[in-house]
Specification:
seven-stranded mixed beta sheet; Immunoglobulin-like
Length: 648
């Protein structure tokens, strides 16, 4: 049957009355009559009334057809073969049913459930199988003629709180076919986030049917995120965001529940916009807070769980020899003093532990956010550089200083593929302390420039450097701190998802007086702040049917991730919420689904078996061009005929 991609354009067909009106009000130019004299002709008044008639009906018809063809072309015409013209084949049928969280909203599950049962009744004489899935295959029943169990399972099924991952379900369904012909029925809302970039399996020889449900997505409100921040007065700011997936402005009452108390406010939201809002509360006894809004078309994003306790500290692991030198012990002392000093903000805390290099194991590194390797330690004991490189590439911070044996440290860094720097010699004025080196000014764009301003910057620039190692081969943008002569003092390099920082001077008083100055604390804390996870140490997980890989072997049961909530049994709090990708209002059309499924290895066979909606726009464009040509020719001929002079 004929259908249109943009049916709203068809309202323009009401304008087809325009050509008729034009023909009714149009007057042809007067004919020119040749007459010898007018003096014997008596003047007569024109009649006041007269009837208007449609002239040139063929020209009028062509103009109406031309405008109609243009309007239908803009509406996107296509031909969808009817079910009677392309009947469902016999053979085996498998129903692949989506039970992800989004199916609980927009009446999607009721629609999908009813249609799946209808398909089952329609093919009551054929073998029918069933695959239920969400983030994994939940149940698979091979094709059978005993449909009672399948009908009961569909009737009893309910959407989960898990994300949709259909790829494994499609593979499972394809593997269960044993004969031909075979048809796969997909029941889902076909959210763009889950189906757009899907790696389709080889469906060669399989006929695919898409049964979309819940495609009308307007009217939803989404609680997107929530995070707490400590204030200087000891209270907490809870910053959150809400999105209005509706075509009109709205107001929503948002409630924060904590310690059995409700804090509420009204949030005004613009259409299709994300709006931030905030609560200010006293420090709670229970670190588990819940944001909630009223019910709407999709319930799972009306609640957001959040952690309201102090953020986990940044864990710094210092490699220290079992028999450290005086320089190494002093460097560790100054470092610990700076990191464990009270910052005045509970949002930034550090914990520091020391460990001999020979005791480094992967499980110790997994618990650390940053590792410090002093130059004296690196020169006295073998350092597991390969393990540290993997630690940094996985997101950790590695801080290394060059000691008296800088040549060895730089060689080890090159061998471990950490940094290719060349030794440029050691410079120092340790015997002439009245004329030390100074730190140069911080360039714009340097992350330290935002920390050191005013008096803090003055204190940093007045720091005295007695000795440091010149290094060569670093890019200009990798230098965080440099001397007045332009020599690098602190360098930063991105390694995978982590960071490597190299100091050309030690963090002890023998190399500079910086550890004794006020600038030392913010400098060290800002550098080690780079080791803080992007989530602030708070793990944000989504509901799922199994344990995430990062917590495998931790003893947390899969059921803890099956429902939203707070898991605080580990050293890092885990906040579990329903995936917000399930709130995505964008869904794929059947046309787009066919186009993506055709990318599979069985594209040729699948394309021949699919019941396509065939586009007709080129036929309407050709008809409009032909009608326009005929109308032009006919209109020109009529104009020439009416304006031709007549001898009478």
């Amino acid at each position: 049957m004929l259908q249109f991609q943009n049916p709203a354009v068809l309202w323009a067909l009401a304008g087809l009355a325009l050509p008729v009106l034009v023909h009714l009000i149009h007057r042809r130019p007067a004919l020119r009559w040749r007459f010898p004299s007018l003096r014997f002709i008596t003047a007569a008044p024109l009649p006041r009334k007269g009837s208007r008639k449609l002239r040139d009906p063929l020209l009028l018809l062509l103009r109406i057809l031309f405008y109609a063809a243009i309007i239908l072309l803009a509406a996107g015409p296509e031909w969808q073969p009817s079910a009677t013209a392309d009947p469902e084949p016999g053979g085996e049928h498998i129903l692949v049913v989506d039970l992800s969280a989004s199916m609980a909203g927009w009446e999607a599950w009721d629609q999908a459930q009813a249609e799946a049962l209808a398909i089952l009744r329609e093919h009551r004489h054929n073998p029918v199988g069933l695959v239920l899935f969400s983030d994994t295959v939940m149940e698979a029943i091979p094709p059978t003629r005993e449909h009672g169990a399948i009908a009961d399972r569909i009737a009893d099924a309910q959407p989960t709180t898990f994300r949709s991952r259909p790829e494994r379900a499609l593979q499972e369904a394809q593997s269960m076919f044993s004969g031909t012909p075979r048809t796969m029925h997909l029941f889902s809302d076909f959210q763009t986030a889950s189906w757009e970039d899907l790696n389709w399996p080889d469906t060669q020889g399989t006929r695919v049917r898409f049964h979309a449900a819940g495609v009308e997505r307007a009217g939803n409100r989404v609680l997107l995120s929530g995070q707490s921040y400590a204030r200087d007065d000891g209270r907490l700011d809870v910053i959150a965001r809400i999105r209005n997936d509706a075509p009109e402005d709205a107001e929503e009452r948002v409630v924060l529940r904590v310690d059995g108390t409700e804090h509420a406010q009204i949030v005004s939201m613009a259409a299709w916009e994300t709006t931030p809002f905030a609560f200010t509360i006293e420090p709670p006894r229970d670190s588990h807070g819940v944001l909630q809004i009223g019910s709407d078309v999709y319930p799972h994003d009306n609640t957001y769980h959040l952690y309201l306790g102090p953020p986990p500290p940044i864990r710094v692991l210092t490699l220290l020899s079992t028999r450290p030198s005086q320089q190494a012990a002093e460097e560790t002392f100054f470092l610990r003093s700076a990191l464990e000093a009270q910052t005045g903000s509970e949002n930034l805390r550090f914990e520091m532990d020391s460990l001999p290099p020979r005791m480094i194991r992967s499980d110790y590194l997994d618990m650390a956010n940053a590792v410090f390797v002093g130059g004296e330690t690196a020169a006295s004991e073998p350092i597991p550089w390969e393990e540290l490189r993997r630690f940094s590439e996985d997101g950790g911070l590695l801080f290394v200083t060059l000691g008296n044996n800088a040549l060895r440290v730089l060689r080890d860094l090159r061998a471990a593929d950490l940094w290719d720097l060349r030794h440029g010699g050691r410079t120092g004025r340790e015997l002439v302390r009245y004329n030390p080196y100074r730190i140069g000014s911080l360039r714009r764009g340097n992350p330290l420039a935002d920390v050191f301003t005013g008096e803090a910057a003055r204190d940093l620039y007045l720091s005295a450097l007695y000795q440091y190692v010149r290094v060569e081969g670093a890019a200009r943008e990798e230098v965080l701190l440099e001397s007045e002569d332009g020599d690098p003092l602190l360098l930063r390099r991105v390694l995978g998802e982590g960071t490597l920082i190299l100091g050309t001077f030690g963090l002890q008083s023998g190399d500079s007086d910086l550890p004794l100055r006020n600038a030392f604390l913010p400098l060290v804390q800002e550098l080690f702040r780079l080791g803080r996870p992007e989530d602030g140490g708070i793990v944000h997980a989504e509901t799922r049917s199994d344990v995430p890989g990062q917590f495998a072997g931790s003893g947390i049961e899969a059921g803890r991730f099956a429902a939203p909530g707070l898991i605080d049994s580990l050293d890092r709090p885990i906040v579990v919420n329903v995936s917000r990708t399930e709130s995505d209002p964008e869904v794929l059309s059947e046309r787009a689904l066919h186009r993506r499924s055709d990318r599979s290895d069985g594209a040729t066979d699948l394309r021949e078996s699919l019941r396509y909606a065939r586009p007709l726009w080129h036929w309407f464009a050709l008809a409009a061009a032909a009608i326009f040509l005929l109308e032009t020719l006919l209109g020109g001929w009529l104009d020439r005929r009416s304006s031709a002079p007549t001898d009478r």
